[in-house]
Write a structure and sequence with these properties.
The protein folds into two domains: about 70 residues, SH3 type barrels, CATH 2.30.30.40; about 160 residues, Muramoyl-pentapeptide Carboxypeptidase, domain 2 (2-Layer Sandwich). The protein contains four helices and 15 strands. Strand 4 and strand 5 form a beta hairpin. The longest helix has 13 residues. It is elongated. The chain starts with 6 loop residues before the first strand and ends with a strand.
Amino acid sequence: MADPINVISEIRGSVVATANLNLRQGAPNTTAPIVRKVARGSVLFATRLVEGQSIAGNTQWYCGEGDVYFWAGAVGAVATDPPPVGGLNVPRRANGTIRPLRDSQIRAAYGDLRVTELAGGRVKLDPTWVTDNIVEIIVPELESTGTSTIQIHKKAQESFSRVFKEIANQGLASSILTFGGTWVPRHMGWMATRGLSSHTWGIAIDLNVAWNGYGNVPAAHGVHGSVRQLVAIFESEGFAWGGYFEPLSICDGMHFELAITS
């Protein structure tokens, strides 16, 4: 029978690997089987801090979902994320965070698009579909970024409006420094070999791009340019945050996309 594991504290948050790291199954020690190896810069999710095997004098290990353990000496400090909000018809990961819809789900909920390929990963949509589905709404909370209107899918307008109203209510509008776009018909990553971006349907928005670049660890809580303080508000309306995308090569901290299926 395995020895009981001493829990130091219950937590919920993201950590970033500061070195290449082995994820161990079932116990916080180097004799436990390796489930996965992650590279430096990978974002991991932790639920508990526990006592485990001492490595370089450090006996603390993190526990993630699925009884997976990784040594605390090889990761940065926990950036605590707010608990997910239930009651929404959205897909979720095992840790409770909202994951984006698959292409087939987006098409079922927001329209089965037919596109004409353009240069640079862009696409052209049927003008009738655009007229029937894309609307423009006023967002005063974005005025400081140089715009006060955004174009989005008509089914998403109430969700977007409520998100920005709550951002204003919580006094967080000043943390939105730049606006990177909503409705932009294109492929993911501007690469024609990939699927269509959720921006094509007008259900996504990019904020504070310079501090939360694609393929980089998003700015930490409290740091200039961070969007982490907005994640709970977006999640409460059914938006998935790109900062949870794994591996790090596709992490997209600037990005929020609506994941409600009906």
